[in-house]
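RETRY 2/3 - previous attempt timed out on the joint model. Re-submitting the same 925-residue input unchanged.
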Amino acid sequence: MRNTIKVAALSATAVLALAACSSGKTDDTSTAGSSGASGNKNIAFVQGVAGDEFYITMECGIKAKAAELGYTVTTQGPQKFDPTLQKPIVDSVTASKPAAMLIAPTDVTAMQAPLEQAAKAGIKVVLVDTTVNDPSFAVSQISSDNVGGGAAAFEAIKAAKPGGGKVLVISTDPGVSTVDARVKGFSDAAAKDSTFKDLGVQYSHNDPATAANLVSSALQKDPDIVGIFATNLFSAEGSATGVRQAGAKDVTIVGFDAGPNQIKALQDGTVQALVAQQPSTIGSDGIEQADAALTGKTVNPKIQTGFTIITKDNLSGEGGQAAYKSTC
Amino acid sequence: MSALFEARGLSRRFGRVQALDKADFDVNAGEVVALIGDNGAGKSTLVKALTGNLDVDEGEILFEGEPVHFATPHEASALGIEVVHQDLALAPHLDAAQNMFLGRELMRAGVAGRLGFMDNSAMRTKAAAAFTELGSAVRSVVVPVGTMSGGQKQSVAIARSVAWANQVLFLDEPTAALGVVQTHNVMETIKRVRDRGLAVVLISHSMPHVLEVADRVQVLRLGRRVATYQAADTSVEQLVGAMTGALDRKEGAA
Amino acid sequence: MSTITKPAQAIETSSSHGSFLERLKAMQSVWILGVLIVIFGAFAVLSPTQFLTTGNITNIMQNVSIWAVIAVGMTFVIITSGIDLSVGSVLVVSSVVSAKTMEALGGEGWGVALVGLLVAVVVGLLWGILNGFLVAKAHVPPLIVTLGTLSVALGIAQIITGGLDIRSAPTVLQDSIGYGRIAGIPAISLIALVVVILGGIGLHKTKFGRYTYAIGSNETSARRVGIGVDRKLVQIYALSGFLAGLAGLLSLAQFGTTTIAGQSLTNLNVIAAVVIGGTSIFGGLGSMFGSMVGLFIPATLQSGFVIIGVSPYWQTVAVGAILIAAVYVDQQRRAAASRGKGV
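RETRY 2/3 succeeded.
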């Protein structure tokens, strides 16, 4: 039994030590519960998934702007892009009563109720990147013009392959607002152009390994695919791997998002163009809107940010700037 | 007087090995018969055949004078014949009372019983009584059997079998792993079982213990019974001689 | 004259063996409760106005409810020294078939919801029976069987829906079960509590539960005494499947969607909770209370860490460490027990 006591004591000490070392904020006991109180300068950022450079870049933009305006930010994110994992985190964030929450919801339906509860508790909710079915409780929605981004991706493939041919889309999961919009933008543009045949969408469930398998299988079936549009970072990573695995030459891959692996793939020539969002801008815009809501200024309910097309040619200049970061 | 339980001319072959070669065996109620033989003599095979664990190629088994055939061990159990194997077949996480009634739990009366609720206190009381009667060294029926000593475990296994066996009880090497005091306790328990009127068959390698507790000794060699002795009239040398074949020309009373 | 070394006193038959304190100390689940209390206390001290609120605590309860339902079945399975990796996928496929049925029936009321419930548990039950059959009759190890059904069930869910979540559960489900409250307690937690209590009674008080322990403790001996081990195993895995099906409906009620892409870590999280709670993966040992305590530990850790602002990566480190510690302690106890603290 003595061992068990030791273990229990150790775990308790570990928990306390962890908390002391890594806690980003102290308990705001001076200002009583209400999160709208002027003294509360805490903002929580809930990512769609932890460890994704898109959200890390967003975090950098958030932290920079927050520091400028005098807010403290804590970041949390689920291990996978999964609403069943994100919901408990949102519940806990709501309990911690920040002044505002910036969140990228992982499902348009599942996250509706938890976020409504957060708004009801007086927290200013800003939706960044993705959205939900009924965003009326949020003070602002900020995302890239994903439809335009998808269309631009098609243009990039067209520029590389003016003769036309078969094109394929590798997306993550249906029901995620942002990628669905990109797919729509791409498919609509492809439908208008008779020289291209759209082979449709396959879903990689945001797993690079699955994307790789889907692409190499698709290339076995249709070796004459000329272009692949990968709708996000993990899908683009996997698609490049899949093309290599299939040994295919001269497939134009346009990826969405510009993480370090994709920039490298661009440099190596396995991916030909990247449509980079501006996550840093989305983040700092989010803080600005939260601040506006908290200080009673006018809020902009919907902001669409732009994107940058990165190719090997502009990597050293504008393109390089738009690449996503792995650390701030 | 015909034996309670007997085998006549059992034969069984496994591939090229003739495990039983027209083997005989008999045991009466209220006696302890020791079945001895060297390794490979066919003791386990004989026990398996007599308890429904194995089919035979030839020969017959008689219970109370009538021929019987066991397709499964449960058919043997139904006649009141039980075996305590060397591994004891106890569930170590369950206590002695639970082990004793395993598979044959006492249920509560009425609806509760049909829903699956057991009468634990009745089982515990009965178990304690059984252990006391057998003189076992078990001190508590509510601790996990896995924490008990070898001798206590042995007595739990024997008590379980005796509770359900009312005719013949086979004990396979019951004292093999036990110390002196524990062995002594198990020997006493065996005597008490015999005194209740059961027929007890003891398989053992230990000649001294065999002579101490058995009434008769039957020796198996190369798949057949080569000798039967009254324990009081024989000695360790004679038994060993029969086992190894040194006394082949001498046949004991069958 | 008997020469047996008789015990000095009468044989102990009372179930209250040892003093109350001794019995308490012997239960692993009590120790794990201690760990939970320590963790809870630590966060309460660090963050009194945020962690220790009824709102936060009810949220924690609500969020463990679905896992609790699955953990009841998993406790039975692991006590038999088996394992069920397929629970997350069975949850998903049950919710998919249920949602599709309710969608086809149309309507928002209780009638439709009850049909959905029936469909969900029947689907779960069928998967469970399949698992049990393969484990018991085909003698395939449970790890392999349930790994296989994990993939097949999920695949079927994706085939049925084309990968698209069904987002149309009847409103009564989401309003009264998903987020409804009865006397301030989340309805979904009350449902889970009922399941846990029934499961606990079944495990600790009935013959079915005792046979579960017997099979896990020594399967050969269970067979020898005439217990229908194969049948029991099928029933136990069927129970696990049934509860995963129920969890599927509850998930539908809570999230309003079938979350086909989700639930990927559910099986491991539930297994970890059950093992932390004192159920041994070697079989024969475990308790329903322990499993529930084990369930609350990761959930409380996560809530606390989020509130005080610890990085999410530390959360998984902490849960993993506690899991290993719990199994280590379990091993120590088993070794001490078999070293013969003989009675």
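Chain B touches chain C through 50 residues (CB under 8 Å). Closing ticket.
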